[in-house]
Give the backbone structure.
Amino acid sequence: MSAGTPRSWLHPISLSKDGLTGRAALCLSEADPAQAAMPQSPHCDLLHDNERRRLDEMRFERRRDSYWLGRCCAKRALAAIRDIAPQRIEIASGVWGQPIVVGEVPGQPVQVSISHSAAIGAAVAFDAAFPMGVDVESPDSVARLDPARWSCEEERRQWLSGDDALLPALLWSAKEAVAKVLHSGLSAPPELLRIERLREDAGLWRYGFRHLPHVEGLTLPHQGQVLSLAFPKDSLDVGQIRGLSGLAKAGDRPRVVFMFSGQGSQYYQMGRELFEHDPIFAEHMRHGARTLERLSGVDLLQVIYAGGRPKTEPFVELGHTHPALFLIQYALARTLLDKGVRPDLLLGASLGEFVAIAVAEAVPFEQAAGMVLEHARLVAKHSPRGAMIAVLASPELYRSEPRLHRLCELAGENFDRHFVIALPLDTRLEVKRILAEHGVSHQELPVQYAFHSSQMDRVCSEYALRMAGVAPRPPRWPVLSCASGAYLGGDLADHLARLARAPIDFRATVQRLLSQGDCLLLDLGPSGTLATHARYGHATDAGFKAVSAMTPFGNDVYTLNQTLDAFAAL
């Protein structure tokens, strides 16, 4: 990393309560004490002009460092839930000193909460409908304070009478976090912020507040500090935060991302060697295939593996390829989880988003499988036959060539020299002739429909009706969409209904991911195409590694072991 640049971790959060859904993102940054947090740091690019001036006016270095670190966290967190240019947004101060987001932010109102302790900064950005507070504290600093000034008698008798150095910091931090929700600070009487129902829960401390029954909180250790979040009661699945306890021990470990691909990456015999030699993978394949056969009447294992069909034979029957891609990627993800690989987030491209939400347990496997089958049925019923062509050239070729605009649609951008077009069958020969005129290599994908184009409009309209009853749970891991470039939230049903229509921008999605910290990208698609796109598109970036867990070239067991080794080396 650049000198003066803090190491950062970003953790998206889904919120829901009483039919209302929202998004939040928690950012933690750790400045290297051996490096100076100077105004000339590259991360001053995150600051608004007013924030730069305020930083220049600060006389004391410690105050400058904490201000700079807190703004870095807040801008990253905001960028995770809104499409913003950070330097155009100002985090100003309200009349009580609370941070206020000033500037043009698209969507619903959004706010932030900021904290810092020693060289660690924290910020949570959240939809304003779900007020939140964050606090990070050093146990040593809290130990020097008189508990009688900030706690009530019952709290001191119940939790502060022993010699546990963590509990005073935990209680202080919890009160600071909820005070930020109230915008009161610890000037509020200790009794008002009185903590109750304090209990340890698998590495986290959870609690409520006696006089604030609509708020709850959690605290966990992080880098020798304690980190607390306060939020509306019953709005946050705590399972989303458990990954942070692993993050707290991980130092600057890159985030692990499971990536799932869509149509065009399938082939006969995919994963066969692994199916024959890895009993964990085989069991997940068999279990999923039984569920899909019960729903569709088709034995997918027979379709994929029986008959001795070569890998080179086109595998294009949509009623088979849709569920086959869903099954094999889900089984591979479950295999990695069973072998101890834990992702920090999931990334879905096109059909891969259905896999991601199933792996994340936002919807049960059987329900997600039914959604995939219904999607295939509606595409076959309502969409005319079409084609998709991968083009090895800059997407600017499509934008600057009017004949391509007339004959086809831009379906996806994978890296700066690779894009995909979707088109009706009757324009295929003319489009290929135009591409040949420009001297660019291209390859038709093994699909029978023009996904991510206007040919999907009727499909999306009817699929939206089918999805109306879907009620997702908060995902176990955040799910990042290559269609929207955002993390999936409570509007999951509406998003999936539009998924086949929206163009895929894998390039921008990965760029956004890498801008938020280093990553290990694990491609769980059967062809390893997403890992290939990432390597070509970001060959000069030192902050990531892309690994294919399966390829069409065989050696499935060896390839999976290489994936396990990449995770173990973190």
